[in-house]
Amino acid sequence: MNDQEKSYALHEQHFDQYSKGGVRERIAQSWFTEGTIAYTQARQRDGISDPMLLAYPGASWVTVGDGRYGSDAHYLGTKGATALATDISDALLKEGAEIGYIQAFKKENAEKLSFEDGSFDFVLCKESYHHFPRPMKALYEMLRVAKKGIILLEPVDPYVYQNVVQAMFRGLIAGLNRLGIFKLLLGRDINRATYEEVGNYVYKVSKREMEKIALGLNYPVVAFRGINIYHLQGSEKVDAKKFSKGTFIVSVMTGLLNLLSWLRIAEPQLLAVVLFKEMPNATCLEQLKKDGYQVVMLPRNPYW
User: Fold this and answer.
1) What pLDDT is attached to residue 20?
2) Which domain holds residue 180?
3) Which of the 8 DSSP states describes residue 233?
4) How far apart are CA 42 and CA 72, in angstroms?
Protein backbone atom coordinates (compact mmCIF):
# COMPACT_ATOMS: atom_id res chain seq x y z
CA MET A 1 0.00 0.00 0.00
CA ASN A 2 1.53 3.34 -1.07
CA ASP A 3 1.19 6.62 0.84
CA GLN A 4 -1.87 7.77 -1.13
CA GLU A 5 -3.70 4.48 -0.61
CA LYS A 6 -2.82 4.57 3.09
CA SER A 7 -4.28 8.07 3.36
CA TYR A 8 -7.42 6.99 1.48
CA ALA A 9 -7.93 4.14 3.93
CA LEU A 10 -7.44 6.42 6.95
CA HIS A 11 -9.89 8.97 5.54
CA GLU A 12 -12.46 6.26 4.91
CA GLN A 13 -12.12 4.91 8.44
CA HIS A 14 -12.37 8.40 9.96
CA PHE A 15 -16.17 8.54 9.87
CA ASP A 16 -16.65 5.09 11.39
CA GLN A 17 -16.16 6.57 14.86
CA TYR A 18 -19.04 8.99 14.21
CA SER A 19 -21.50 6.34 12.98
CA LYS A 20 -23.98 4.39 15.10
CA GLY A 21 -22.17 2.76 17.98
CA GLY A 22 -18.99 4.75 17.31
CA VAL A 23 -17.06 6.52 20.05
CA ARG A 24 -18.04 9.92 18.62
CA GLU A 25 -21.65 9.17 17.74
CA ARG A 26 -22.88 11.79 20.23
CA ILE A 27 -20.79 14.47 18.52
CA ALA A 28 -22.19 13.46 15.13
CA GLN A 29 -25.75 13.72 16.42
CA SER A 30 -25.03 17.25 17.66
CA TRP A 31 -24.52 18.33 14.05
CA PHE A 32 -28.30 18.25 13.67
CA THR A 33 -28.94 20.51 16.67
CA GLU A 34 -30.44 23.77 15.37
CA GLY A 35 -29.76 27.08 17.08
CA THR A 36 -26.18 26.35 18.12
CA ILE A 37 -23.18 28.41 17.03
CA ALA A 38 -21.86 25.47 15.00
CA TYR A 39 -25.20 25.01 13.22
CA THR A 40 -25.50 28.75 12.47
CA GLN A 41 -21.97 28.89 11.09
CA ALA A 42 -22.62 25.80 8.97
CA ARG A 43 -25.60 27.55 7.35
CA GLN A 44 -23.36 30.56 6.65
CA ARG A 45 -20.98 28.27 4.79
CA ASP A 46 -23.86 26.66 2.88
CA GLY A 47 -24.87 30.05 1.49
CA ILE A 48 -21.93 30.15 -0.92
CA SER A 49 -23.99 28.15 -3.44
CA ASP A 50 -27.07 30.39 -3.31
CA PRO A 51 -26.31 32.48 -6.44
CA MET A 52 -26.08 29.35 -8.60
CA LEU A 53 -29.14 27.79 -6.97
CA LEU A 54 -31.21 30.89 -7.71
CA ALA A 55 -29.92 31.35 -11.26
CA TYR A 56 -30.18 27.71 -12.34
CA PRO A 57 -33.29 26.13 -10.84
CA GLY A 58 -33.49 22.45 -11.65
CA ALA A 59 -29.75 22.11 -12.22
CA SER A 60 -28.07 18.83 -11.30
CA TRP A 61 -25.48 18.83 -8.52
CA VAL A 62 -22.96 16.45 -7.00
CA THR A 63 -21.22 17.10 -3.70
CA VAL A 64 -17.68 15.84 -3.12
CA GLY A 65 -16.25 15.09 0.32
CA ASP A 66 -19.74 15.26 1.82
CA GLY A 67 -19.27 12.62 4.51
CA ARG A 68 -21.21 14.31 7.31
CA TYR A 69 -24.50 12.59 6.48
CA GLY A 70 -24.46 14.41 3.12
CA SER A 71 -25.18 17.77 4.77
CA ASP A 72 -24.12 19.74 1.69
CA ALA A 73 -26.47 17.75 -0.55
CA HIS A 74 -29.19 18.17 2.07
CA TYR A 75 -28.87 21.96 1.93
CA LEU A 76 -29.00 21.95 -1.87
CA GLY A 77 -32.13 19.80 -1.66
CA THR A 78 -33.84 22.29 0.66
CA LYS A 79 -33.32 24.89 -2.09
CA GLY A 80 -35.03 22.72 -4.70
CA ALA A 81 -31.94 21.23 -6.33
CA THR A 82 -31.33 17.60 -7.19
CA ALA A 83 -28.09 16.57 -5.52
CA LEU A 84 -26.04 13.39 -5.26
CA ALA A 85 -23.93 13.21 -2.09
CA THR A 86 -20.51 11.53 -2.37
CA ASP A 87 -17.60 10.80 -0.06
CA ILE A 88 -14.76 8.33 0.24
CA SER A 89 -16.69 6.89 3.21
CA ASP A 90 -20.37 6.02 2.93
CA ALA A 91 -20.74 5.18 6.65
CA LEU A 92 -22.74 8.31 7.50
CA LEU A 93 -24.17 8.72 4.00
CA LYS A 94 -26.06 5.46 4.49
CA GLU A 95 -27.47 6.74 7.77
CA GLY A 96 -28.40 10.04 6.16
CA ALA A 97 -30.34 8.23 3.46
CA GLU A 98 -32.06 5.97 6.00
CA ILE A 99 -33.53 8.94 7.89
CA GLY A 100 -34.48 10.79 4.70
CA TYR A 101 -31.87 13.50 5.20
CA ILE A 102 -30.55 12.95 1.66
CA GLN A 103 -32.15 11.36 -1.38
CA ALA A 104 -29.15 9.79 -3.08
CA PHE A 105 -25.51 9.01 -2.34
CA LYS A 106 -22.53 7.19 -3.78
CA LYS A 107 -19.17 6.17 -2.39
CA GLU A 108 -16.55 8.02 -4.43
CA ASN A 109 -12.86 8.90 -4.25
CA ALA A 110 -12.57 12.57 -5.22
CA GLU A 111 -9.28 11.91 -7.00
CA LYS A 112 -10.78 9.33 -9.37
CA LEU A 113 -14.49 10.01 -9.81
CA SER A 114 -16.44 7.32 -11.64
CA PHE A 115 -18.75 9.72 -13.53
CA GLU A 116 -18.66 10.56 -17.24
CA ASP A 117 -17.49 13.97 -18.45
CA GLY A 118 -20.09 16.69 -17.84
CA SER A 119 -22.37 14.44 -15.79
CA PHE A 120 -23.56 17.29 -13.54
CA ASP A 121 -24.23 20.98 -13.98
CA PHE A 122 -22.38 21.91 -10.79
CA VAL A 123 -19.95 20.27 -8.38
CA LEU A 124 -19.77 21.47 -4.78
CA CYS A 125 -16.75 20.70 -2.60
CA LYS A 126 -17.03 22.46 0.75
CA GLU A 127 -14.08 22.34 3.16
CA SER A 128 -12.89 18.97 1.89
CA TYR A 129 -10.35 19.90 -0.80
CA HIS A 130 -7.63 20.62 1.78
CA HIS A 131 -8.00 17.07 3.16
CA PHE A 132 -7.24 15.30 -0.11
CA PRO A 133 -3.81 13.61 -0.52
CA ARG A 134 -3.58 14.87 -4.13
CA PRO A 135 -5.93 17.88 -4.25
CA MET A 136 -4.96 19.07 -7.72
CA LYS A 137 -5.97 15.73 -9.17
CA ALA A 138 -9.31 16.01 -7.39
CA LEU A 139 -9.78 19.54 -8.73
CA TYR A 140 -9.39 18.45 -12.34
CA GLU A 141 -11.68 15.48 -11.72
CA MET A 142 -14.38 17.83 -10.43
CA LEU A 143 -13.93 20.13 -13.41
CA ARG A 144 -14.14 17.14 -15.72
CA VAL A 145 -17.53 15.95 -14.46
CA ALA A 146 -19.03 19.47 -14.30
CA LYS A 147 -20.88 21.14 -17.20
CA LYS A 148 -21.18 24.68 -15.88
CA GLY A 149 -18.69 24.92 -13.04
CA ILE A 150 -17.50 23.98 -9.57
CA ILE A 151 -17.77 25.68 -6.19
CA LEU A 152 -15.09 25.36 -3.50
CA LEU A 153 -14.90 26.66 0.04
CA GLU A 154 -11.42 26.29 1.51
CA PRO A 155 -8.95 27.81 3.99
CA VAL A 156 -6.89 30.66 2.56
CA ASP A 157 -3.13 30.34 2.17
CA PRO A 158 -1.80 33.09 4.49
CA TYR A 159 1.60 33.04 2.79
CA VAL A 160 0.30 34.42 -0.52
CA TYR A 161 0.38 38.18 0.06
CA GLN A 162 -1.87 40.67 -1.68
CA ASN A 163 0.07 43.75 -0.53
CA VAL A 164 3.08 44.91 1.48
CA VAL A 165 1.02 45.33 4.66
CA GLN A 166 0.02 41.66 4.59
CA ALA A 167 3.64 40.62 4.12
CA MET A 168 4.66 42.77 7.11
CA PHE A 169 1.81 41.40 9.22
CA ARG A 170 2.81 37.82 8.42
CA GLY A 171 6.40 38.74 9.30
CA LEU A 172 5.20 40.02 12.68
CA ILE A 173 3.29 36.77 13.27
CA ALA A 174 6.41 34.76 12.38
CA GLY A 175 8.51 36.82 14.81
CA LEU A 176 6.06 36.31 17.67
CA ASN A 177 5.96 32.61 16.82
CA ARG A 178 9.75 32.33 17.12
CA LEU A 179 9.54 33.96 20.55
CA GLY A 180 7.10 31.26 21.65
CA ILE A 181 4.16 33.63 22.13
CA PHE A 182 1.63 31.39 20.36
CA LYS A 183 2.97 28.32 22.14
CA LEU A 184 2.26 30.11 25.41
CA LEU A 185 -1.18 31.45 24.47
CA LEU A 186 -2.53 28.66 22.24
CA GLY A 187 -0.47 25.71 23.34
CA ARG A 188 1.03 25.27 19.87
CA ASP A 189 3.32 26.98 17.38
CA ILE A 190 2.09 28.32 14.04
CA ASN A 191 3.62 26.12 11.35
CA ARG A 192 4.02 27.02 7.71
CA ALA A 193 3.20 23.41 6.77
CA THR A 194 0.65 21.36 8.70
CA TYR A 195 -0.47 17.77 8.41
CA GLU A 196 -3.49 15.80 9.61
CA GLU A 197 -3.48 12.46 11.42
CA VAL A 198 -5.00 10.79 8.37
CA GLY A 199 -1.81 11.53 6.49
CA ASN A 200 -2.47 14.51 4.26
CA TYR A 201 -0.80 17.90 4.01
CA VAL A 202 -3.37 20.64 4.71
CA TYR A 203 -3.61 22.31 1.30
CA LYS A 204 -4.77 25.93 1.41
CA VAL A 205 -5.78 28.00 -1.61
CA SER A 206 -5.37 31.52 -2.99
CA LYS A 207 -7.19 33.71 -5.49
CA ARG A 208 -4.20 33.87 -7.82
CA GLU A 209 -3.78 30.11 -7.87
CA MET A 210 -7.43 29.55 -8.83
CA GLU A 211 -7.35 32.34 -11.40
CA LYS A 212 -4.32 30.74 -13.10
CA ILE A 213 -6.11 27.40 -13.30
CA ALA A 214 -9.10 29.07 -14.96
CA LEU A 215 -6.84 30.96 -17.37
CA GLY A 216 -4.96 27.82 -18.32
CA LEU A 217 -8.23 26.07 -19.18
CA ASN A 218 -9.58 29.14 -21.01
CA TYR A 219 -12.57 29.53 -18.69
CA PRO A 220 -14.49 32.81 -18.96
CA VAL A 221 -15.23 33.75 -15.35
CA VAL A 222 -14.04 33.07 -11.81
CA ALA A 223 -15.68 34.47 -8.69
CA PHE A 224 -14.31 34.89 -5.15
CA ARG A 225 -15.82 35.62 -1.78
CA GLY A 226 -13.92 35.79 1.52
CA ILE A 227 -15.55 34.60 4.73
CA ASN A 228 -14.43 34.81 8.35
CA ILE A 229 -15.84 32.17 10.70
CA TYR A 230 -14.15 31.88 14.07
CA HIS A 231 -14.07 28.28 15.27
CA LEU A 232 -14.84 27.83 18.96
CA GLN A 233 -14.12 24.44 20.49
CA GLY A 234 -17.42 22.93 21.62
CA SER A 235 -19.52 25.37 19.57
CA GLU A 236 -21.96 22.57 18.75
CA LYS A 237 -23.17 22.86 22.35
CA VAL A 238 -23.44 26.67 22.60
CA ASP A 239 -26.80 28.37 21.99
CA ALA A 240 -26.23 31.07 19.38
CA LYS A 241 -29.18 33.17 20.60
CA LYS A 242 -28.26 33.35 24.28
CA PHE A 243 -25.51 35.59 25.62
CA SER A 244 -22.67 33.54 27.07
CA LYS A 245 -18.92 33.46 27.21
CA GLY A 246 -18.93 31.38 24.03
CA THR A 247 -21.15 33.73 22.02
CA PHE A 248 -19.13 36.71 23.25
CA ILE A 249 -15.82 35.16 22.17
CA VAL A 250 -17.15 34.22 18.74
CA SER A 251 -18.65 37.69 18.22
CA VAL A 252 -15.47 39.53 19.24
CA MET A 253 -13.08 37.27 17.32
CA THR A 254 -15.22 37.30 14.16
CA GLY A 255 -15.41 41.09 14.37
CA LEU A 256 -11.63 41.32 14.74
CA LEU A 257 -11.06 39.02 11.76
CA ASN A 258 -13.51 41.05 9.65
CA LEU A 259 -11.71 44.26 10.64
CA LEU A 260 -8.31 42.85 9.65
CA SER A 261 -9.77 41.76 6.30
CA TRP A 262 -11.45 45.12 5.71
CA LEU A 263 -8.18 46.93 6.42
CA ARG A 264 -6.43 44.50 4.02
CA ILE A 265 -4.03 43.53 6.80
CA ALA A 266 -4.97 39.88 6.44
CA GLU A 267 -7.05 37.84 4.02
CA PRO A 268 -10.29 36.23 5.24
CA GLN A 269 -9.96 32.75 6.76
CA LEU A 270 -12.02 31.02 4.09
CA LEU A 271 -12.26 31.57 0.35
CA ALA A 272 -15.30 30.63 -1.69
CA VAL A 273 -14.29 30.02 -5.31
CA VAL A 274 -16.53 29.49 -8.33
CA LEU A 275 -14.80 28.32 -11.51
CA PHE A 276 -17.20 28.70 -14.43
CA LYS A 277 -16.59 26.52 -17.48
CA GLU A 278 -19.08 28.59 -19.48
CA MET A 279 -20.34 32.16 -19.23
CA PRO A 280 -22.89 32.34 -16.37
CA ASN A 281 -26.29 33.84 -17.12
CA ALA A 282 -27.17 37.41 -16.18
CA THR A 283 -29.14 36.36 -13.09
CA CYS A 284 -26.17 34.46 -11.75
CA LEU A 285 -23.76 37.34 -12.32
CA GLU A 286 -26.15 39.76 -10.62
CA GLN A 287 -26.71 37.44 -7.67
CA LEU A 288 -22.98 36.78 -7.23
CA LYS A 289 -22.30 40.49 -6.89
CA LYS A 290 -25.29 40.92 -4.57
CA ASP A 291 -23.93 38.18 -2.31
CA GLY A 292 -20.52 39.86 -2.04
CA TYR A 293 -18.58 37.90 -4.65
CA GLN A 294 -15.78 39.50 -6.64
CA VAL A 295 -16.55 38.52 -10.23
CA VAL A 296 -13.48 38.39 -12.49
CA MET A 297 -14.01 38.35 -16.26
CA LEU A 298 -11.01 36.57 -17.69
CA PRO A 299 -9.31 37.31 -21.03
CA ARG A 300 -9.86 34.58 -23.59
CA ASN A 301 -7.01 32.69 -25.19
CA PRO A 302 -6.67 34.29 -28.67
CA TYR A 303 -5.13 31.13 -30.15
CA TRP A 304 -7.91 28.69 -29.27
Assistant:
1) 85
2) 3-297
3) T
4) 10
